[in-house]
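thread from #wetlab-drylab

HS: before we spend reagent money on co-crystallization trials with iron/sulfur cluster, can we at least see a predicted complex? here's what I'd submit
DV: go for it
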Amino acid sequence: MILINEDWCKGCQICITRCPVDALEESDKLNRRGVRPPKLKENNRCNFCRLCELLCPDLAITVIPDEETKEKPKKTLRPPIVSVRSIGRNIK
Ligand code: SF4
Ligand code: SF4
């Protein structure tokens, strides 16, 4: 997931031109500063390298790898409590 604070963007395009997999492009709409912020392309190959986040001079981009946003499965069942004695009885 790439979070872009569109109104913080000044349209320098560093993120767009430096992305190693060409995953970003200009948005169609203007932000409050009158420039077009970046957006992810359709079918992009973003690998969450975070280069755009590091290079943005206005801190407008936050990269969160998809694995971190997926909900982890909850453990709902506890393992059964079995005493050593009861196991011994069943074996006989
Ligand atoms: S590097 Fe930052 S300020 Fe420059 S275009 Fe990208 S988001 Fe906007
Ligand atoms: S995280 Fe890396 S691959 Fe993804 S858009 Fe930013 S620079 Fe490109």
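DV: The mean pLDDT is 88.
HS: ok that's useful, forwarding to the group
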